[in-house]
Amino acid sequence: MLTAPAFAGPSIAGGVFTGNSTDVGAILSDSFSAPALPAQFQLSLGAPLSNSNGRFAATAELVGHGSAGYLGGGVGVGQLKQDGRSGAVLVGILGTHVAPLTSLELRVYGGGSDVGSSAFLGLRFSL
Fold it and tell me: Residue 2 falls within a domain, yes or no?
């Protein structure tokens, strides 16, 4: 059951992207509280910082918060594989709190065969 208040505002995550290569990357997000819900609307932009070859994902997400963490999903555009094409992507998000304003986050991105798929595992810091 989602019962914890949602925290709105900017955050940054640093970690590892996987796919057709494993690369260090980052995700920048800004969130807005959903009135009367333990959830937030979030806009995120993520990309590998090494060996990116144009890979990125820009998504709009809905994230629900509970006492131990959060769960969410979203849609957007991206290019998730090297030498791929840009197109529609879906993202699933799972996170758990590890310290105040810090969480361990897993994201799974998927698109069509030309767009590719990827996963991200990293630490998210709320600002």
Answer: no
Share of the chain above pLDDT 70, in %: 94
For 71, residues 6+ apart whose C-beta sits below 8 A from its C-beta are 63, 64, 93, 94, 95
Handedness of CA 62, 64, 70, 72 (dihedral sign): negative
pTM, to two decimals = 0.90
Helix%, strand%, coil% for the chain, nearest 5? 0, 65, 35
| Average pLDDT of the residues in 92-119 | 95
Token readout for 42 is: 């979030």
Distance CA(47)–CA(53), nearest Å, equals 10
Domain that holds residue 41: 9-126
Tell me the average pLDDT of the chain: 90
User: How many angstroms separate the CA atoms of 76 and 6, rounded?
Assistant: 22
